[in-house]
Amino acid sequence: MKRILILASLLTAPAARADDWPQWMGPNRDGVWGEKGILAKFPKGGPKEVWRTKINGGYTGPAVVGGMVYVMDYETKDDIRKLSNPRPPKGGLKGKERVLCLDAKTGKEVWKHQYDCPYTVSYPAGPRCTPTVHAGKVYALGAEGNLFCLDAKTGKELWSKDFKKDYAAKTPLWGFTGHPLIDGKNLVCLVGGKGSLLVAFDKDTGKEVWKGLDSKDQGYCPPSLITAGGKRQLLLWDPEKIHSVDPETGKPYWSVALKPHYGMSIMAPKKRGNYLYAGGIDFVSAVFALDGVKEPKEKWRGEGDSGLSPVNATPLLEDDTIYGVDQGGVMRAVDLATGKRLWGTTKLTTGAKTASSGTGFLVKNGDRHFLFNEKGELVIVRLSRKGFEEIDRAKLLEPTGVAFGDRDVVWSHPAFADKCVFARNDKEIVCYSLAAE
Questions:
Q1: Which domain holds residue 234?
Q2: Which of 180, 342, 367, 394 is the most exposed place for a label (fewest CB within 10 A)?
Q3: What's the rounded Cα separation, in Å, for the pair 86 and 89?
Q4: Number of domains, the chain
């Protein structure tokens, strides 16, 4: 049995170095950056800029593997800022989606893969999903459901899928956003269509291994893996329910109802101990007590003055606490077992005032966190149940995106690798050194 468990862990572990950032939220999709030798605070004048490279629009975070940076953008002649609002552009949008490979030391382009991709999505700045890099391959999913497997060194196309043509999936209002997940020999994707909410593909050939689940709308949640009761489980939150399935077959284990407004099931449900937490817009949040592969029991459900209801970013669970950014942009600490709010502040995120769908991306390194907020600032902060200690902050990028037509934002999760931070907006991608001197 011990040998089997060791083999399983090897199969699911990403083929990347400890200081790589091969996918959304890092090596284990948990927002933890394990690299050592990182500065305690910024030098005078801010962190050292290593390079700055022009790119086009997109919400895609970068991935960094083996000295290369992989990121997606959208090339169009239209004015993205004017079109960035809750309504999709009338008549659609013409342009090209691009997968870019840059040298991590210089920012120079190594290769690019591009394809025509008309947009019908709201906020059409560009792709949403961070590329997933594994064992010499790059898996890139665009906003309209175009999935490509590319050779990581050359950009050569190895196989591809079109979710709308292959599975009759409809493009969600805000595009396809489920960051692809590697699980052993499979690539698991949020797809949509009848009986294919989740699809597992052979990661080397693109052949369908299994498909499963039905939902009126697919939502925006990345698939994720947990273990409960000794069973590995694949989780997905659609706009109606959180689902658990067998990752080998797609066979359902359980589901529980949790309905965010506007179909915005965005965050990946997070497990800590025996508890599972999820939350979304309009004060929807809950914690469930896991019971193996049986339907979990509700522990608490958030209301207007309790819980944590994030919009664009998945919170972190540490010890007995949920840390994350609430829908008004308030950075909060919430008791995991009860949903009681322990403290909240906008000083780390949006500034003095709350802001609709206010956003900040939180990454843990040692005993501190790095928070990249929607103003383009990187904040070093120490968090606890009692409060927060801001250590330092620096401006990395200008917020070039637009939220609700009147607020400039940058809504893209940065990457942390090679003792550097890699961040992007709709005009450029930058690399700053975070190495201790």
A1: 2-433
A2: 367
A3: 9
A4: 1
Helix, strand, coil share of the chain (percent; to 5): 5, 45, 50
Which structure tokens are listed for 18? 């400890």
Give the Cα separation of 242 and 38 in Å (integer): 37
> Which run of H or of E encompasses 6?
helix 2-12
Strand order in the sheet with 331-335: 316-318, 321-325, 331-335, 341-345
Residue 234, CA distances (Å) to 62, 251, 283, 296 in order:
24, 10, 25, 15
Contact indicator for 238, 244 with CB cutoff of 8 Å:
no
pLDDT in tens, 213-226: 999 999 999 999 99
- pTM, 2 dp: 0.95
Residue 428, amino acid: E
Tokens representing 46 are 């801010």
Q: Answer whether 324's CB lies under 8 Å from 308's CB.
A: yes
In tens, the pLDDT along 296-348 reads 999 999 987 899 999 999 999 999 999 999 999 999 999 999 999 999 999 99
Calpha distance 172→44 (Å, rounded): 45
Q: Can you give the CATH number for the domain in which 387 is found?
A: 2.130.10.10
Burial class of residue 247 in the structure, from the number of CB atoms within 10 Å of its CB (0-12 exposed, 13-18 middle, 19+ buried): buried
Q: How far is CA 286 from CA 60, 141, 219, 314, 435, in A?
A: 28, 29, 18, 14, 38
Distance of alpha carbon 228 from the chain centroid: 23
